[in-house]
Amino acid sequence: MSEAVTAAVDRNVAEVAAVLRLLGNERRLMVLCKLIEEREMTVGSLAVGVGLTQSALSQHLAKMRDDGLVTFRREAQTIWYRIDDPRIERLIETLHALYCRRSRREPAARKGRA
Description:
By secondary structure, this protein is an alpha+beta fold. It has five helices and three strands.
């Protein structure tokens, strides 16, 4: 790796690790997948879509909002969420392409595989 690439990695590694920690939570990952699919969702619809109570979902959304992954808009008493970072959109779309559009010839992920 060149020195320029190494320096860029050093500058960004903490941010990348923080994003990966957030995505390491299955519920937050599912929320982001739903938001990619629908582009924007109300808290109530999102809660139903990911199988969480609104209270539990609100905690996840607050964490992702604080870290700049999602944003919201208020329409009267309804709150709509969407992904706020195009890098996160690309990352989720890439994960979807790798893991959700699996052809019949590709082996399914095995348990215990690193």
